[in-house]
Specification:
The structure is a homodimer of 510-residue chains. Helix content of chain A is 28%, strand content 28%. Chain A has twelve helices and 32 strands. The N terminus of chain A is likely disordered.
Chain lengths: 510, 510
């Protein structure tokens, strides 16, 4: 039989071929996407569900990549779903591997991997895959939030059995990093395994079973930090699993503001100076115009120590040229008040430099650091991190994330100017890396990622001493020497890129 | 009718009374225990299940207190169940409130409460109560472990519906700190609310429903640190709730050991000195016998600065008498290697002082700090914290928790001697509080609770310069001045107790 000149058998073969080819294409695409997904560190292994109906029926598919890009991007950076990050470095970005010589790179990579593995192990990373609950479990149990301090005991809330009736019930609880018990006062015929890793409840009385379950306790038996024990609850063939987090709370380090909340007991000013004693003294005089009794900590790595006649100045001498961030770290390490105000040695306090305003912001929000503005310049920038196997990708964009709750003229961001008030304890936890000896700024905020919550309030303004050529010959010579140290040489740039590669486990930046 | 001389009515009244009284007694006891439990901060409100049978049948009860004390104690300290902590301070312990004058105490308490509330708010404490899953939910979902970085997107694994068959299915997902979507490519008639806080799936095809659920995504929309969003999954009257943790990972701060792993690139020695230049120099000479090129950082708050002829010594001058812990904090703030070895200025290196051994321990375990022994003295002590509303109780006991995995001659403990190797980054996160100017030791380990994982290896031994009277008149005068500063005066003791009360939010110690 023929149809429009085509043999029906041929038609059949053709249709089957086309359909089959379409199926293969579709399978290939699903497999391709599946491959991408299964490489994603966070994703478990999803299997696209293919309906077992007539293959001629349209099978459900996933959104195409262009759609995903438009849905899951931030600031033009496509974030998800991807299993690797990379940087569009045309002109503006860096690939950090490039900071190392070709010969050295393989050895550096190996060392970096070893150090990273050590770090991961100590941080309890990577975290285990999520705990999944299958449907229709006959149990009630705590899904999230049970925490216990090492060696302590807690009750496990929410345990109950609501399965089908039976002449006898047998329920078993199992833990691995601790032991189980129950506060219910019942004989061993009902509860076996008290104080062991496995507790078994056997009874014909359903209400008794639930009474025991209601009072189950978990005791941590090993002294360790940040572990998660998975406890299982089993009856016949149903198993529920839930997490118990073993964690030691971080002890508070509070500062007493004193009965009068004097600014002197709340805030210390900190600064670092090098070969600019005249600018430092000008800055100090400007502080004293508005804040006569605030403690000022000065870290100095110049050749000769200074004598500063000010009973509220604490002066520290360092080895010559030890460095910019070493000096910053030294200065903040000496602060004994709740807050520390960082200023550069060439700033100038004015009547707009309201420290009280910055204190108010930190007292009322969850920020760790709040920056002001230097002569109108806020220098806010956002940092967005993408994780990747060969190191993370960091994207820097100017501006802010969102306004600050409660302070509409302020914003939340990642980096600010060198004029900021910070929680001393939080600042010390991050610190300034003494390996950064010369020009450095954003490195501090990158080191602070994940630790510091940063904001910016442009209405608190500090002045800046202008770069005017010195008349005094000695000072002019000093300034010339200083400028040499301030030049951001190529060697220094390479050093900082290499540091990002190794220290921060970064791949590239844009 | 009478029975043995008793009126049957009287008997009936009597039995009812006795039974009733017994019931009341039992109720009172349950209520009493219930009261105790419901005051416990961690416990939800358990209602003892009373069987609805004949009141003459025995009702289930909870274990008596003596039994609880024997089950849930550590080192003789009863830990659970309690809603308050207290210290048996006969002779050996302290109640920290006592360090304040009676007049000042109410104001101090109020200030401490305000500072603590500020701290809690910024740490995201107290955590919300545990999320409880009721039994027989027709859903599969992730119980624990879904994490997302702020502003990023993750897939939600494990979502599925396995309820009774129906002609039509409608499932709703709701989030509050982020938005929901699905990678499934389907029209709005099936999936509504893409990119919103509520996503609704409506279909008659059960497999399609599960395909959509399998590919649900969560996008964090606010830039914030450490929050937990509770996402709910609902169909008809069944609701499942599960947590999505919004957390920014802490960026690594790794140190490159260099291609040859020279000890000089791995370890820096740090020390603090005050009015003991002769002892310092003796200690330095002993270092150089065994380790000629390790960097030694010296923080000095003596009257006159020293000139030390050693190209690997970094010397820092501080304001006179600034203090012991201020100097310690300064010294460690200058370290540029992965590890820092703390030594006191009057120690003596010997052929048993094997730094390499301590490095090996830190490289292979999860310890942050490992102490050695000073002339055979290990000074190990455990710190056990109990939480309480009026401040925590801290219990100090000599000894260790358990042996160290992989190093059977070493142990895990809370505090060690002043001879230890530490991860620089971890040590800096805790730091030495510069408010502690004179005698102090355990305060550092208390500040480290929850942050530092500490161990001790007694086989690594350092010597100690004996206290022998100086022949040299100048040195003798110096030592006399020094001893005055080393006296642990009553005023200083009171200061330190007050500091524990306020800074660490402690109530008492034993």
């Amino acid at each position: 039989m023929t149809l429009c000149g085509y043999n029906s058998l041929w038609l059949l073969k053709m249709s089957t071929f086309v359909l089959g080819f379409g199926l293969v294409l579709f399978m290939f695409r699903s497999v391709y996407l599946h491959e991408e997904f299964s490489l994603h560190p966070v994703l478990p292994h999803p299997n696209p569900v293919l309906p077992r109906s007539n293959p001629a029926v349209q099978m459900p598919k996933l959104l195409p990549e262009e759609r995903l890009r438009s849905l899951f991007s931030y600031d033009g950076i496509w974030l998800f779903p991807k299993n690797q990050c990379h940087c569009e470095t045309k002109g503006q970005g860096y690939n950090f591997e490039g900071a190392y010589g070709q010969k050295d790179l393989p050895a550096v990579k190996a060392r970096r991997q070893a150090e990273f593995a050590h770090f991961q192990r100590r941080e309890g990373l990577p975290r285990p895959p999520p705990l999944l609950a299958p449907p229709n479990l006959p149990f009630g149990y705590p899904v999230h939030g049970v925490e216990v301090m090492p060696l302590h005991t807690v009750p496990i809330p929410g345990l109950q059995f609501d399965g089908p009736s039976a002449p006898n019930y047998k329920v078993t609880l199992t833990a691995s990093l601790g032991t189980l018990n129950t506060l219910a006062d019942l004989p061993d015929s009902v509860v076996r395994g008290r104080g062991q890793k496995q507790l078994t409840i056997s009874t014909s009385d359903r209400k008794l079973l639930n009474f025991v379950l209601q009072h189950v306790t978990y005791t941590s038996t090993v002294y360790q930090h940040h572990r998660v024990d998975v406890v299982s609850l089993m009856s016949k063939s149903s198993i529920a699993k839930f997490p118990v987090t073993i964690r030691h709370p971080v002890i508070p380090k509070l500062y007493d503001p004193g009965p009068e909340r004097k600014l002197r007991d709340l805030v210390t000013i900190a600064t670092k100076t090098f070969l600019r004693p005249h600018k430092l003294m000008t800055m100090l005089r400007s502080v004293r115009e508005y804040y006569p009794d605030l403690t000022v900590i000065v870290a100095d790595d110049s050749k000769e120590p200074l004598k500063i006649n000010d009973s509220h100045v604490e002066y520290y001498s360092m080895p010559f040229g030890k460095g910019w961030f070493a000096g910053r770290n030294l200065a903040i390490s000496q602060v004994t008040t709740k807050y520390v105000l960082w200023v550069d040695d060439d700033f100038l306090f004015t009547n707009k430099t309201k420290i009280e305003r910055l204190v108010d912001v930190l007292e009322k929000t969850e920020l760790d650091v709040v920056g002001g503005s230097v002569l109108g310049n806020v220098f806010q920038f956002k940092l967005l991190l993408e994780q990747g196997e060969n190191g993370d990708c960091i994207h820097r964009r100017s501006g802010s994330f969102q306004p600050l709750d409660g302070f509409p003229s302020c914003v939340v961001t990642s980096g600010v100017v060198n004029f900021f008030l910070a929680h001393t304890e939080r600042l010390l936890r991050v610190g300034f890396d003494p390996r950064l000896q010369r020009v450095a700024h954003s490195e501090f905020f990158i080191d602070g990622l994940g630790s510091l919550f940063v904001g910016s309030c442009p209405d608190v303004i500090i002045g800046h001493q202008a770069h005017s050529p010195e008349v005094d010959l000695e000072l002019a010579a000093l300034e010339k020497t200083y400028s040499k140290y301030r030049a951001n040489t190529n060697a220094q740039i390479q050093f900082k890129l290499a540091l990002h590669y190794f220290k921060n486990h970064l791949q590239c930046s844009t």
